[in-house]
Amino acid sequence: MKAILKDFLTYAKMNTRSDATSQTIPTTQGQVELALLLKDQLIEMGLADVAYYEKNSFVIGRLPGNPEKTAIGFIAHVDTADFEAENIQPQIHENYDGKDVCLNKEKAIYMTTAEFPNLKDYVGETLITTDGTTLLGADDKAGIAEIIDALRILQTMDAHKRGDVWVAFGPDEEIGTGADRFDAADFPVAFAYTMDSGRVGHMEYETFNAARIDITIDGTSVHPGTAYGRLVNALKIAHQIDDALPAEEVPERTRGYEGFYLLHNLTGHIGRAEVSYIIRDHDHTLFEQRKADIVGIIDELNTAYGQERITYTLYDQYYNMGDLIKKDPRSIEAARAGMQAIGVTPIEAPFRAGPTARKSPIKGSQHRTYLSAVKTSMASMNLLPWKRWKKPVI
User: What kind of fold does domain 209-318 have according to CATH?
Assistant: First the structure.
C-alpha cells in the first residue's frame, strides 16, 4: 500500500470531530491524539524544530533548506465536521465503473449517480468512500496526508535549491476557532498554502471580510388583555431589523463576489430577544458599508421607539487575505506554475469562506488556499478520488 494512502486511512479512522460547545483547547481529545501522532511522525521523518504547542494545539515542524532561499509553509486542519465520526470505515473502490456506488450493502446505502451526477467524472479511477454511516474526514485528513507525502518527496531532492519548508497542523477549523490562536511567530515563512477540500486545480486566495453582530432587544411584556398602547414585542422588532435588510443579499441568493447578511440565530420572547447576524463581503469598502447599514437600521428603530430598546456588539472576525497577497503575488504565481507544470489548469475563484490560518495575514505572514484533490458533498457521502488526490503532491 502506498504510504500516502496508508497515512490517510490511519488519520481517517481517528475520531477528531470538533465540538462547538466545548471550552477546551482543542475542543476534543481526539484532535490531541492525532496532533501527537503527527508530531511523532514528523520527528521520525527527521524534521527540525518539531513541536506540539499546548497553547493552541498546533503541531509545527521544519524541513531544513537553503537559508538564503524563501521559506514557505503548508497548513492543514486535524478536525472534522459536525457529523458522526466514531468507527469510521473507509471503503476502497477500484476501477470505478460509472454506476451507483454501494457503500453499505447490509444497510442498502448507495451513492447514486442520480443524486451525485459528477460521479461520472471518475470512471476508471479508484475511489475512497465511507460506509455510509459516518463522514470520511477527507476534509482535511487528505490534506494532511498530502503534506506528509510531499515532505517525503522533498527529502529526496536537493535541499540547497529551496528554502525551509514549514508545516503546521491545527485544530477546530470546522467550528471557526482554532486559527484564532495560531501564532505566526512560530511559523516564520514568507507565505503558506492551506491544503483543504475541493476539486483538482481550484486555487482560492480571496476570502471574505467577515464580521458578526450580536443584538439584544428589550421589549415590554404586558397581558394581552391590557396591552393597548403598552406592549412592545421584542420578536417583532427583530423581524423589523431583518425586513429592513436587502432581501436578495442572503447566502442562498448570492454567489461569486457577492456579499450577504445571514440571520444566524434568533431566540427570545415578547420581553426580550437575542439576534445574531454574520456579515460577509470580499470588497472591504462594501464590507464597511454593510456594517454601517445594519447599525443605521438599529439606530433608526431606537429613534422610532423613543428609547434605546436595541443594543448590540459588532466585531470583525477576519479579513480578505487576497488584499495582502495581491501586494506580493509570489504565492499565487508559484502555485499557478506548479499546477501548469503537471498539466493542471488553475481554476481561480473567490473563496466564500475564511482561511484556515485566518489571523496570520494580519500579523504579516501571507496565507492562501490551494485546494487538494478531494471532492466532498453530503457528510456520509464523502468521496476521495485517488488519482486526483495525489496530484498536489507531485
Answer: Alpha-Beta Plaits (3.30.70)
**Range list for CATH 3.30.70.360 in the chain:** 209-318
At 362-389, the pLDDT tens digits run 344 444 544 444 443 456 667 777 666 6
pLDDT above 90 covers what percent of the chain?
74
Q: Which residues are catalytic?
A: 79, 173
Give which of 143, 128, 148, 150 is closest to 79, Cα–Cα: 143
Per the DSSP assignment, residues forming a β-bridge with 141 are: none
Statement: residue 57 has pLDDT above 90: yes
CATH 3.40.630.10 range(s) for the chain read 3-206+321-393
Global pTM?
A: 0.80
Ordered DSSP codes for 139-188: HHHHHHHHHHHHHHHHHTS-GGGS--EEEEEES-TTTT-GGGG--GGGS-
Q: Which residue has the higher pLDDT, 217 or 354?
A: 217
Q: Determine the straight-line distance between the first and last CA of the chain, rounded to whole angstroms.
A: 18
**Cα dihedral 239→244→248→250 (10° resolution):** -60
Q: Residue 192's closest CA among 344, 341, 8, 363?
A: 363
The number of beta carbons lying within 10 Å of the beta carbon of residue 98 is 12
Residues 6+ apart with CB under 8 A from 223: none
Domain 3-206+321-393 CATH (choose: 3.10.580.10, 3.40.50.720, 3.90.950.10, 3.40.630.10): 3.40.630.10
- Per DSSP bridges, beta strands 310-318 and 209-218 are antiparallel
- Cell numbers for 271: 420581553
Place of cell 434605546: 308
